[in-house]
Amino acid sequence: MIKSPKILCKKLGLSFSQLELFTLALTHRSIGSKNNERLEFLGDSILGFVIAEALYNKFPHADEGILSRLRASLVNQTSLAELARKHKIGDYLILGSGELKSGGYRRDSILSDALEAIMGAIIKDQGIEACKAWILTLFAERLDGLSLDNWQKDPKTRLQEHMQARQIDIPKYKLISESGLAHEKTFQVECSVDLLKIKFIGVGASRKKAEQHAAELMLQEIAKEPK
User: Which residue in 44, 113, 125, 211 is the catalytic one?
Assistant: First the structure.
C-alpha cells in the first residue's frame, strides 16, 4: 500500500495549502495524463537557477567553466535520486501497475523527476522564495562540502594525473552493466587501479558519466589515506 503523501510532506518540513499539488508531484506518468511532468519541468528550472546562484555567491573568483562543473555535480539524475532515497520518496510514489511491478520506485529517473516535481509544486503553492529556501536546505550539506581545490579538472583527469605523479599505472575502466530503456539507460562502470587493489563502481545516465562517477569515488577514497 502506498504511504500517504501527507506523511511525506510533514517529513520534508513542508506545509501545503493545496495538498493535491504535492500529491500530483508524486504521480508518475504511468498513472495517466494527470501526472507530475509539468511540475517537474517547473522544478527543474528553479533548481538549476538556485544552485547556480548559490555557487556564484559561494565562489566569487571561480570562472564559468568551474561553476558549470560544480553545478553539474549537484544537479544531475544520480545526485537527485540519492537525495530522494535519503528522504524515502520512493515509498510515496504513485505509479501505474507496470511501473510498480518493475520496481519503478527505485529507478533514478523516476526518483529525480519526483524530487524536481515537488519543487515545482512548492512554487505553485507557496511561491519562488519558499521553494528557493527549501532547495537550499535540501542541498545545504552538499554545498557546504564543496571546495574549489578539487574542481579545476574533471574527476577522470584528476585521477589520472594523481596516478601519473606517483608513477602508478593509470586507472582502468570496465563496463559492468547497461540497463533501462533507450531514452533512460543506466550504466555501471568499474574503476580499478591494480597496484592499489581497490575498485569502485560508478553509475550514470551514460558510460562517460558513470566513469566520471567511479573516478570521483576513487579520488574520495584516496583522499582518506594518510599523507
Answer: 44
Burial of 111 (0-12, 13-18, 19+ CB in 10 A): buried
Between strands 186-193 and 198-204, the pairing is antiparallel
13 and 94 in a single domain? The answer is: yes
**Longest CA span, the chain:** 61
* Whether residue 190 sits in one domain with residue 105: no
Residues 129 and 89 occupy one common structural domain: yes
Give pLDDT tens digits for 110-142: 999 999 999 999 999 999 999 999 999 999 999
Reply yes or no on whether 44 is catalytic: yes
The three-class DSSP label of residue 190 is strand
Structural domain span for residue 129 = 5-148
Report pLDDT for 34.
Answer: 94
pTM score: 0.68
Task: Name the residue with higher pLDDT: 191 or 99.
Answer: 191
Q: Which runs of E-coded beta strand occur in the chain?
A: 172-179, 186-193, 198-204
DSSP string, 113-166: HHHHHHHHHHHHHH-HHHHHHHHHHHTHHHHHT--GGG-SS-HHHHHHHHHHHT
Q: Catalytic residue among 40, 99, 116, 190, which? A: 116
Answer with the one of 121, 148, 175 that is the final residue of a domain.
148
Which of 125, 148, 171 terminates a domain? The answer is 148
Number of domains in the chain: 2
The predicted-structure confidence for 171-197, as pLDDT tens digits, reads as follows 999 999 999 887 788 999 999 988 878
